[in-house]
Amino acid sequence: MPRLMIVDDELDVREYLKNFFKRRKIDVVTAESGEEALSLIAGQQPDLMLLDVHMAGISGVETLKRIRESGNNVKVIMVTGVED
User: What does R_g of the chain's alpha carbons equal in angstroms?
Assistant: First the structure.
């Protein structure tokens, strides 16, 4: 079963996406921050990560940078819900 990691600081976004993908038989792991994602990624080994760009703490961009520096090549889709 494919594994997806959803990283977003908004609970409602995480829960909506988690339910959406679980109904499609995808194993979902969530993290509410870049820091949490970094601590979980090695043990969870997701196939794909949906990573919010704008988060409290370290940003999605910085999180991705640290993931790559660790040698992890997980596929990442950067997402944002920022409105102008």
Answer: 12
**84 token code pair:** 């102008």
CA atoms within 13 A on the CB side of 75: 5
Question: Could you read off the pLDDT of 13-51 as tens digits, one per residue?
Answer: 999 999 999 999 999 999 999 999 999 999 999 999 999
Cα separation of 23 and 46, whole Å? 18
Does the pLDDT of residue 82 top 70, yes or no? no
- Element at 48 (helix H, strand E): strand 48-52
Print burial letters for 35-62: b (CB count within 10 Å at least 16), e (below 16).
eebbebbeebebebbbbbeebeebebee
Q: What is the maximal distance between C-alpha atoms in the chain?
A: 38
Q: What's residue 1's pLDDT?
A: 87
Helix axes 60-69, 34-44, angle to 10 degrees: 30
